[in-house]
## 1
Amino acid sequence: MEKPPENMKCLGIDGYWYNIGSFIDKHPGGPVIEEFVGYDATDAYRSFHKSNVLKQRHFRPIGHYKKDWFEFNKAMHRLHEQLMDEGFYKVNYYWYAMKFSLTFVYISLVFLTLALYGHSWVALSIAAPLLAFFWQQNGFLMHDLMHTQVTHDRNVDEMLGVWTGTVCIGISASWWKDEHMYHHALTCIVDYARNFYDPQMKEEVWAQSVRLFPFFQTRLSYVLIKLQHITFVPVCMFIGRTAIIIDSFHLEKRWYEWLALFMHFTWLMFLLSLIPTWEKLFYFYFLAQTLQGILHVQLLANHYSKEFNFRDEIITDWYRKQVLTNINIRNPKCLDFFHGGLNFHIEHHCFPRAPRNRLREISLRIKEVCKQHDVYYDECGFFEILKRTLVHLKKTGDLFALKDPR
């Protein structure tokens, strides 16, 4: 039996077909699992899950097939097993406790500064970057938690993720997680037949790949894409925070996310009430949200100069495509905290459950595997990545025309 029954929704793992039809709606990672129906999902499955998940969920194979391994994917699979055996996935609770404690220190300093010196322009100029840093660092913690890196208990991590993401930052953490699981499993892909694309790699104001052009066929799109190399940084910096809050909640139906959003605006309004004039209030909030825009640049620049793949290309060659669709940020170890693990984007995409504080060590191992199998490992400094992104947006924008290129 090589192919699964046509009347069943099956995916393949390690040469065996499993019927997941009744499990799709219950999948903790969301409906992204359905994208692998009919395909071998071994690489993605092992990167996202513990090895005993199938047994815990009482799945039994209904058939088998011949598992074809690409040599690079086989080597990455061996590396994953080695990292597990060597304890790379063990949680350093002290490290995470320090991260949580520091965010409390940042927001406490913001409240204290505004309570004592809210009338001072100098104080506002100090407190606003601290608030932006509080939002940025909580964004990194939400990211870790929604990947269940912190406690390895999905319920606990997701509850803390709602705290760091929705209560502290103001975006729907659950919405972010739903989109992020698609982004990880199907990084930088398009599927024209299903009108599908990586949801975290497409925005309405720019198209960074020729393969995205069919989704932009209005005159407004033409203008925006022709200017995208100019608007990229200003949009991220000045509009990014407001846009993602609106985007995350305009279809949100989960009651706990709305409760968490109410809590967010409660503490934020109280904080802003400490500023005596509207002029100073606007200055403070505008500066804080603009500086938080650095996070939005960080989130996008790791992918934006990379080309998109078709859906089948990434599913059948998963590890290689994860390496080739990401760029690492080269920086001193002392700046790892500022990039929140996003500087090791290749490592994180290959092994998304690996704790952030071990990614620098893992990068050395992945570089060696890439060297052995002649797979290009892309890394450069932050400003070089930004330059490459803007140059790529300019070149792509120059190619855009109001006609379907398919």
## 2
Amino acid sequence: MADSESIAASSQMDNQDDPLNEYSSEEIDGMVKELLTGNEVIENETLMFVKYLKRVDPNVTGAPFAVPVPSQSSHDTRVMRKRSRSKGSGVDKHLKLTAEQKCDIAQREIEELREDIAKLKEDSEKKMDSFKAIIEEADLRFSELKKSSYEFERDIVKGSVNTRINRVIAEKVTRYFEDKQRARDTLIEKLRLKNSTLKVQKKKLHLQLKQKEEMGEVLHEVDFQQLKIENSQYLEKIDERNQDLLRLKLMSGNTQQVLNSYKKKLQTLTLESDRLHSEITSRNDLLGKIDTETETVEAVSSISCVLLLVFLFQHRT
């Protein structure tokens, strides 16, 4: 009985000391949601910090996880809350990171994620190129097989059949496969020679690269940056030259149009000149004929006059 009275008294004191009694159920629900959201943010920050810490110091083991708190009675919960109030503030002061440290860690994690994404993208592109090469090789082999099947069907199945006995001639089949084997051997020899040539070129390039590394002629990051700047400058100059070339092409096109119009006018005037020249020639010929006829008429008229005068003179006498 005394124990029950002491428990009731302690519960009454706890109810009086509990600050949550001042809030309604809706306000408590809102506070719980805010605390859960804050806990999620803190958990994400902790996970990010652990990733950063593992990358900086690989010997670090363990990761923070949201440890589920076992169910307790309301009395034990209130007791634990009272005990944690006195210790929580002091511990948080030593464990919390500043905003600058959080930003630094987040920035480094973002850079690390970007590098990982770039590596994944590069690996994906390599795999895509490899798959494309495999698909192209498969297509090429399929086309070769299709062509070989067509040739075999044409030359052996249909073209090597003896009409008398209605069977395929074995000699032609043997010759067909021997020709295919010789062609395959020739192709293998060509590829072998090409492979050996590529190996020699690869060896030469490795030697040149090694010599450049020994002589210190290998480009560093600063050199690449300088080359990028020079490349951008040259690209701008090329763009300007392309604009000038385009403008000159437009001027040339306009000049060509004007020249074509003048050529058409010259052709028209040349035709007109030829026509006038032919007309002048024809008129000159006509004028010559008229002059000839005029001289003939004048001669005839002069003779007629003389004869008339002679006739008149004789008639008078």
